[in-house]
Design goal:
2 domains; 6 helices; 162 residues; alpha+beta
Length: 162
């Protein structure tokens, strides 16, 4: 009978070891899954940036000659204000509306300071930025400059701060 008691005690210890091993195994599998599924923010930003570069290349192919001078102006503006706003990079450029010498464009800009991309609408006139990259002019100011009402209306509808 003493042998039977020892065997029961041994079985309980073996069951506990198996149970603890199983729990540890499941915890390690769960931790591995969470780490693989949720990469750190630097990896996510890198993936996001590379997909935006693809978009930039596609938009460049559409109007390469026309957009290149406008993109240069915008890039120079972003670079010239890096001391105030931090390093920023133009990722995507798209024309929303065009009327006469004025264009309403949407820009996707990557901010090194915030490690993220944001969209902004801008009004351009003959390869110069009137509003939208570093400042936001009011609709009345745009009207006084001579911006067509259609572009002002579209700009007002698409601005995130109105």
């Amino acid at each position: 009978m003493a042998l039977g008691i020892c065997e029961e005690g041994l079985m309980n210890k073996e069951n506990k070891v198996i149970l603890i091993s199983s729990v540890l195994f499941l915890v390690s599998i769960t931790a591995t899954f969470l780490i693989v599924k949720n990469p750190d923010s630097n990896q996510y930003t890198t993936i996001l940036s590379s997909s935006q570069n693809t978009n930039e290349n596609q938009s460049n192919q559409n109007n390469a000659h026309e957009q290149s001078s406008e993109q240069k102006v915008i890039t120079e503006l972003l670079n010239s204000t890096s001391s105030t706003y931090g390093n920023r990079e133009l990722k995507k450029y798209s024309i929303v509306k065009e009327q006469g010498e004025f264009k309403l464009v949407t820009l996707e800009i990557y901010s090194e300071k915030f490690k993220s991309t944001y969209s902004v609408y801008a009004v351009l006139r003959n390869n110069s930025v009137i509003t939208g990259v570093n400042d936001r002019k009011s609709p009345d100011t745009l009207k006084n400059i001579g911006v067509p009402a259609d572009i002002i209306g579209e700009y007002k509808r698409n601005r995130s701060d109105v």
